[in-house]
UniProtKB/TrEMBL annotation:
Gene3D superfamilies reported in the protein's UniProt record: Amidase signature (AS) domain (3.90.1300.10)
SUPFAM superfamilies: Amidase signature (AS) enzymes
All copies of domain Amidase, residue ranges: 26-433
Keyword Transferase included in the entry's annotation: yes
InterPro entries: Amidase (IPR000120), Amidase_CS (IPR020556), Amidase_dom (IPR023631), AS_sf (IPR036928)
Single GO MF descriptor: transferase activity
Ligase in keyword set: no
Native source species: Roseivivax lentus
Keywords assigned by UniProt, alphabetized: Transferase
Segments passing through the bilayer: none
Protein name: Aspartyl-tRNA(Asn)/glutamyl-tRNA(Gln) amidotransferase subunit A
Length: 444
């Protein structure tokens, strides 16, 4: 018997359409595998089996009648536990929100459900999504697929682990400074950061609303594209057809900041990936963008200022329930003034305009997704200085995409926990995914 839980989401959807896969049996296969997995409680905050079975039965009936709503109708996925689920606890990885039960689904969950996705359950995350590591002693710390003693990357840590370990066909996460791309990279997945504003944030627990984005963690570019479509309430995602090779493709390799202090495993995996792209006909041009230093320096104002503005009152009352390093990150925004925040955004908008003019000459800007690979969870807990430095390093490269306001995707390079990122234009997901599909075909 074929192990459906090892298949790509689009392949599962095609199997359902062809009558070869029953959505009910498929959902039961995932629920059984989750129940038997020794690390399930470190990955799923809670399961939604009754909902999953009901949605699977409805998908099976639509398939029988030839009324399937999307290419992924009947495919089971996981949801990060900051997306509201009606009558199901949603706590965003924080004891401050313990027992929080929303009255309705988040808008993206509503859209995905209307297109036939099956909700398996809610996955663990970094507390209030404010860490790139995925370490959360308040709830659970999901494992990295390449090292169960290492963190999975955050903040969509459980989402990545659920897909990498075959406990969901795909995961839906959020990305404010790298929270889809980091765990995707460390777990050898494809992760798509959408442009801020493209997908609804209504009904998702916020961190910094001007940077928060929704995105899929998946096994392939085709899966990521199809998931983007259903999250938007469409039957299919962007058309990936186009030149299937890299001949004539022109990439900018960002050298400013993004190449600094790469760990040996990352440097080797990244260099190998670039070599394969060049051998496949791609032109890769070094690109220095010195103005990037300004926004990177302002990131503490931009992120922590907004995060404290949203959560400060709650933390002042119940902050003793938090993981201390996460609380400290929030409290870093306590003294950010309105003037500082506004001026930082004015500077950022000016740099963004220059970035977009520069990047328009290339098919994508490329860089290592993270400068490091997944660190050991125990050491992070025992050494606060190490926690702080690793967290900041982890998010350094991915944050560039959020600051510049662009679409971005990370792809596995073949080296464990080493990802290659491609950054495109704002709202340029369709073109970026077509380019990513050609790169994926080379990287394997």
């Amino acid at each position: 018997m074929t192990d459906w839980t090892g298949m790509e989401a689009v392949a599962l959807g095609r199997g359902i359409a062809a009558g070869e896969i029953d959505p009910v049996a498929l959902t039961e296969a995932y629920l059984d595998k989750i129940a038997a997995h020794p690390l399930r409680d470190r990955i799923y905050a809670r399961l939604t089996p009754d909902r999953a079975r009901a949605e699977a039965r409805a998908a099976a009936e639509r398939a029988r009648l030839g009324l399937r709503r999307s290419v992924l109708d009947g495919v089971p996925v996981s949801w990060k536990d900051l997306f509201d689920t009606a009558c199901i606890v949603t706590e965003a990885g924080s004891a401050m929100l313990e027992g929080r039960v929303p009255a309705r689904d988040a808008e993206v969950l509503q859209a995905a459900t209307a297109m036939g996705l099956v909700c398996l359950g809610k996955t663990h995350l970094s507390e209030l999504a404010f860490s790139g590591l995925g370490l959360n002693p308040v709830t659970e710390t999901p494992p990295c697929v390449n090292d169960a003693e290492a963190v999975a990357g955050g903040s969509s840590s459980g989402a990545a682990a659920s897909v990498a370990l075959g406990l969901a066909a795909a995961g839906i996460g959020t990305d404010t400074g790298g929270s889809v791309r980091v765990p995707s990279a460390w777990n050898d997945l494809v992760g798509l950061k959408t442009t801020a504003g493209r997908l609804s944030l209504a009904g998702s627990v916020p961190l910094a609303k001007r940077f928060d984005t929704v995105g899929p963690l998946a096994r392939s570019v085709a899966d990521a594209a199809a998931l983007l479509g259903v999250l938007e309430g469409r039957a299919d995602g962007p058309d990936l057809r186009g030149p299937g090779n890299l001949a004539g493709r022109r990439f900018a390799q960002l050298t400013t900041i993004a190449q600094d202090d790469l760990r040996p495993e990352v440097a080797a995996g990244y260099a190998d990936a670039l070599g394969r792209l060049r051998a496949a006909g791609a032109e890769i041009v070094d690109l220095a963008f010195q103005d990037l230093a300004g926004p990177m320096g302002d990131a503490a104002i931009l992120y922590t200022g907004e995060a404290w503005g949203l959560w400060g009152d709650t933390i002042e009352v119940a902050g003793d329930k938090m993981f201390a390093p996460i609380r400290a990150r929030f409290e870093g925004g306590r003294d950010v003034s309105a003037g500082q925040y506004v001026r930082a955004w004015e500077r950022l908008e000016a740099v963004r305009a220059d970035w977009h003019r520069m990047a328009a000459a290339f098919d994508a800007v490329i860089l290592p997704t993270t400068p490091n690979i997944a660190p050991d969870a125990t050491r992070l807990m025992e050494d606060n200085d190490y926690y702080v430095t690793e967290n900041l390093l982890t998010l350094r490269n991915t944050r560039i995409g959020n600051l510049m306001g662009v679409s971005a995707v990370t792809l596995p390079t073949g080296a464990p926990s080493v990802g290659l990122s491609l950054m495109g234009a704002p709202l340029g997901e369709a073109r970026l995914l077509r380019v990513a599909a050609a790169v994926e075909a080379v990287l394997g």
